[in-house]
Amino acid sequence: MIPLFFLVSGEHPTLPYAEIRAILESENIPYNELEILPQILRLNSSVFCVQKISSRSSLTRVCCLEIFKCKADKQSILKHASDTEYDQFISSGQTFAVRIRRVQRSSPHLDIEKLEGEIGRKILNKKREIKVRLASPDKTFFGTLTDENFVFGLKLGEVSPKPFTKRRPKNRPFFHPSALPPKLARCMVNLARPKNDSVVLDPFCGSGSILIEAGLIGCRVLGSDVRDLMARGGLMNLRFFGVEALGVSVAEAGELPFRRVDRIVADPPYGRSTTTLGFTIREIVSRFLSEAIDILPEGGYVSMASPRNLGISEIGENEGFKVIEKHLVYVHRSLTRELIVLKKV
């Protein structure tokens, strides 16, 4: 194992860390969590995990091999930078740049641009056969100022937000206003801990947000929706983004036409304009989970969203699931989603 740190999105206080843990668990990658700092997760794991997190995560920004951590004062930072040997991080003849990110207004007394230059000079003093190149360097040394700490390392991976922007609901051929944002949909898929080639079902697939994200990380996807229009629109969106579903059916979630799936990710209807066939939201969720536990294998997961006041934990436990984790996601003044992960044990 090697020391690593991950700069994560500040969009939510718990989901980014939970997503990384879920990815590592889904890929059976051992890890030892060291510390959570504002927008930073430090852990020991194999370098192999960086590729998996970079390719799957929606809420991670930068993945780094950790070189040192110290207090966020200039003297301490430069001493650690001067004391470090860089032979294992950069080879003779290569170029490098130093980049520093400040999160949540940490350490306002430090001038980031000046600090980048001073650390760069310390690196040059230790290894003279290398050169600084700010545009497209061979190696990037990356530091983060967070909560009076400075964490410094070698960047190994980065997650661009641009692909998620391109998949926003307004950019799809079939639009529906209640569609999940791509980053949240991807995170929910990851929380279900699917492996590559797992069969992932969304029984309320709507315009396809969850199935698109599951398909793009290598899962085989199945969907159903009680409305024919939504099932057809979701299938159109899937194909638009190059995801070929195993099938998309018109079916009610309490009477699913599937015998076995590996994971279920769901965002049941709870808006005023949604179709519920006369059932209450609680009845819909209860009927769905009663079906879900029969078609999941032992150890299978359900990742789903619901209104905060629905009491989904109680419903899940009543149907025989174990609650693994819960997260609250503020949507607007009248709606806070509860994201929950259930496991069949």
Task: Report what the structure shows.
The chain has 345 residues and is α/β, with parallel strands linked by helices. The chain has two domains: 2-158, 2-Layer Sandwich (VC0802-like), CATH 3.30.2130; 165-344, Vaccinia Virus protein VP39 (Rossmann fold, 3-Layer(aba) Sandwich). The protein has ten helices and 15 strands. The strands form two sheets. It has an eight-stranded mixed β-sheet with strand order 2-3-1-4-8-7-5-6. A seven-stranded mixed β-sheet has the order 11-10-9-12-13-15-14.
Characteristic key phrases:
alpha/beta, 15 strands, VC0802-like, 2 domains, 8-stranded mixed beta sheet, Rossmann fold, 345 residues
Explain the layout of strands and helices.
Blueprint: E1 2-8, H1 15-26, E2 31-37, E3 40-45, H2 48-56, E4 60-71, H3 74-83, E5 95-102, H4 112-126, E6 131-132, E7 139-146, E8 149-158, H5 162-166, H6 182-191, E9 199-202, H7 209-216, E10 220-225, H8 228-240, E11 247-250, E12 263-266, H9 281-295, E13 301-307, H10 312-318, E14 321-332, E15 335-344
Parallel strand pairs: 5-6, 5-7, 9-10, 9-12, 10-11, 12-13
Antiparallel strand pairs: 1-3, 1-4, 2-3, 4-8, 7-8, 13-15, 14-15
